[in-house]
Amino acid sequence: MAYKTAMIDVGGGFRAIFGCGVMDRMLEDGIDVDMCYGVSAGAANMTSFIARQHGRNHTFYTKYAFRKEYASAESFFKNHNFANLDYIYGTLSNHDGEYPVDFEAFEANPTGFTVVACNAEDGSTKYFDKSRIRFDDFDIVKASSAVPVACEPYVVDDVPYFDGGIADPVPVQKALDDGYERVILILSRLRDEVRQQHKDLPPARILERTYPAAAERLRERYKTYNDEIELAKQYEAEGKVLILAPEDLYGLNTLKKNFEGLEMMYRKGYAAAEAIPEFLSK
Asked: Which residues form the active site (predicted)?
């Protein structure tokens, strides 16, 4: 029996290279899914996956990410964005960029794509679909990756958006409600890590002044994340979800990186993908 299949990549800044390893292995093994759900950096990972560009994500994380134009305090002071989203998903990714997205292949691939973002003004969850990625226009990926306070909200069609991770960080229920029967869930934290609220409180206080509804979502993110992970584990026990997660973070966090840690995390993702064929055939 052929199931309707989906894959979710929850992102997680530099830790999200784990998902790149998973997807490169899937490309090598010829494994497709019917729908991809991308959150934050996960949406960027999946853009390359859908375009079938093996190794592209790895280059971004292990080479371009060390440039000051990519992500740095200097970028923050110059552009009010720690990660320069226009550089990453524009200058580098457009057709005349250093490593362009193969847009023709992206469009031709029948795999669907849902990108999660948070409406900065009212705090609602926005699910963009594949049609909103256009030639040299990856605005929805930028919107989904705009970490509150570290980045300004990214405006798409006159609406400002923040990182999808503060709205629907682990959209497993969304995938099942959309009719997908087998869901591969890629995490970038340890599978049993319980997210704490304290790290989100200082940025939420700053955000409160300009975007109070988004600040409230940020304050509640720890609970949303923890609840959605618990739900994913219940579905895993029922055989509907496969959770792939690193066993160590190798010194990486959302905005902190080291080359050895990135390489290790990539390899662990690549190895974890071994479980996918059996899961999809059960």
From this structure: 40, 163
